[in-house]
Amino acid sequence: MSALPRAGNGKVTVPDILHRKSASGDSHSAQQKITCLTAYDYPTARLLDEAGVDILLVGDSLGMVVLGYENTLPVTFEEMLHHLRAVRRGTHHALLVADMPFGSFHVSHEDTVRQALRLVKEGGAEAVKIEGGERRMDLIARLVEAEIPVMAHIGLTPQSVLELGGFRVQGKSIAAAEKLVRDAHAVEAAGAFSVVLESVPRELAARITGELRIPTIGIGAGPDCDGQVLVFHDLVGLSLDGTPKFARQYVNLGELITRAARAYCDDVRGGQFPSDAESFHNSRDVAEASAIKSR
Ligand code: KIV
How many Å apart are CA 128 and CA 281, to the nearest integer? Predict the structure, then answer.
């Protein structure tokens, strides 16, 4: 069973996130931008939460950056739940959102609500994220009706990789741009409390942000969205198969980890680790007894 942290004491809630939108017109708008990062384990969740990130997303990018899958399609519901629980244990301040993995919302509305409820009841999610626009309207409305807040996700939706034929910037033609605007209005009308815009032209993201009443959270969608999300591994240099153009790497942990592992191997092989100070020692009784014996 999960234990949700209580609201208050700086805990970020769904209404807080919605409020950022209505507050974005005031003079402190820059401070109102929403920050979101992915997290997949306890220590990362704790560090990001303590750093003041507003939303932690247990994204199904888990499959690619942590589990080594080629894309997000193989990620199972049980894998999501397992990682979500770990993140829940490390999250006290941020709003915790969990992705609905591919296949978990495709069978029926009833089944989807049941799965989403498991993310809330067993995993401690405070909202779920669903990929897709207009065609997910009824589904989003059903989840909202069941009192499960929904973050929508439109533009490049990685679970549509088979349909899209690859990961490309979306909304580049006039027709595609108009479709994305319709998707954005549809998820808002269905009751989503926010929408992720992934890999869309900056100008289009700015237009959608201007038209919606719910916050937009961009990834590869330029600086005019109400907030930004990045995959944690891109931020810290742990995306071993490459970092997308839109991501900014703030530190290269990959390099630091390799250096630390090499130094450890050198120390062990050279007899420099562990040292005497890093070893346990006999108690005085045992030391004295062995001294007598060896006389
Ligand atoms: O799975 C994920 O991490 C995501 C974000 C990139 C928005 O969907």
Answer: 52
Over residues 138-177, the pLDDT tens digits come to 999 999 999 999 999 999 999 999 998 889 999 999 999 9
Question: Can you tell me which atom of ligand 1 is nearest the CA of 72?
Answer: 1
Q: How many CB atoms lie within 10 A of CB 153?
A: 30
Task: Write the single-letter amino acid at 174.
Answer: I
CA dist., res. 49 & res. 94, Å (int): 6
Protein residue closest via CA to atom 5 of ligand 1: 59
Pairing of strands 194-198, 216-219: parallel
Mutational pocket test of ligand 1: of 229, 234, 239, 243, the residue with most ligand atoms within 8 Å of the beta carbon: 229
Whole-angstrom distance, CA of residue 92 vs CA of residue 39: 13
CA dist 26 → 23, 145, 207 (Å): 6, 32, 19
